[in-house]
């Protein structure tokens, strides 16, 4: 079948052709419900049994901006990443039912009983175990494809299978470049324009971001998710699932950590509005976010070190001082990438509902400036912090 974009009138016939998923004669209904930047997302339900699946189809251009080319081949990368995530980090990613290479469509587990973490946090919900799940997800999903976690020769061949240049270019532009100059796609509220321009004038700051960008572009450390923000995580009590790894490629592990940790910060700042009526509740919720922020790193650090010690076979990599040094570099990378992840959400093209749903321009600007200030300090001090508690102190200092 030649590629054709699916819609509400064709999705049921398409799903019916997937005979391993739905039995012949099943009564199906289907509808597109995606609100992401890049793909079509359908839910198809067998009305007889109530069984439902999600079908995700790649589009050739970004929904958010059709001048951005988004090759269909990323669906193949995503489907293979999901299979690997289920293998390396079982229970922490959705199950996949099929990949259709002609239609660039993936059939996967419907997580309708879960909620997207970003929305859940806007609603002020807490999820016990979230930090441990996310720390484990990043540790397990990345360790397996490091040079210690797998054969180095096999790894080099695997790198070629996950080359994802166009999606990496989106990240290079939207996260590492455009927020630091006057790019046409930027969206800067007038109340924060002067503060945003301060960043653009700060050549020492821009140099540090360029160093982070260079590492993103050149370090094939492990196969990373590549877009692990709070909109790429489903949650329900006791369950966390990372989805949407279409930006996957061999890159720096700290990028996955930084993206998930950094995307917590706009939410932290946005509680100025979402919990505006109760200062105690706001402080308690922010303290929970800080615990999750720190807990992701702490759990990652433990799980990754354990995996390393259990799997290391080569003499050079068995040196404990080397492991300590490796972890220290992952730590400063995570803090640096967290900074870039939060700053792009304030001034760049793809912003987030946490902040954008604040209708009061003055409160919104205050929250935005908190995020920009934390982002700059994280970037500049990332190699100086001695531990995660010192990093949390920076968050607290800017969000009083
Ligand atoms: C043009 S795509 C904009 C953003 O959406 C994705 O989720 C990535 O974060 C990308 O940067
Ligand atoms: Mg996405």
Give a quick rundown of the structure.
The chain has 400 residues and is an alpha+beta fold.
Describe it.
The protein is globular and about 60 Å long. It contains 15 helices and ten strands. It has 400 residues and is an alpha+beta fold. The strands form three sheets. Strands 1-2-3-5-4 form a five-stranded antiparallel beta sheet. The longest helix has 33 residues. Helix 9 packs across helix 12 and helix 14 runs antiparallel to helix 15. Strand 8 and strand 9 form a beta hairpin. The mean pLDDT is 97. The structure holds 5-S-methyl-5-thio-alpha-D-ribofuranose and magnesium ion.
Strand content: 5-15%
Major pleated sheet: 5 strands, antiparallel
Helix content: 40-55%
Mean pLDDT: 97
Low-confidence stretches: none
Radius of gyration: 21 Å
Number of helices, counting only DSSP H or I runs of 4 residues or more? 15
Q: What spatial form do the alpha-carbon principal axes imply? A: globular
User: Got a strand count?
Assistant: 10
Termini separation comes to 57 Å
Going across the biggest sheet, name each strand in turn.
Answer: 1-2-3-5-4
Structural class: alpha+beta
Order of helices and strands: HEEEHEEEHHHHHHEEEEHHHHHHH
Write the layout of secondary structure elements.
Elements: H1 11-16, E1 28-32, E2 39-46, E3 52-58, H2 74-88, E4 96-100, E5 105-109, E6 115-116, H3 117-122, H4 130-143, H5 152-161, H6 165-174, H7 193-201, H8 203-218, E7 222-224, E8 233-236, E9 239-242, E10 249-251, H9 253-262, H10 264-274, H11 279-311, H12 320-347, H13 353-356, H14 361-381, H15 388-398
Antiparallel strand pairs: 1-2, 2-3, 3-5, 4-5, 6-8, 7-10, 8-9
The chain binds 5-S-methyl-5-thio-alpha-D-ribofuranose and magnesium ion.
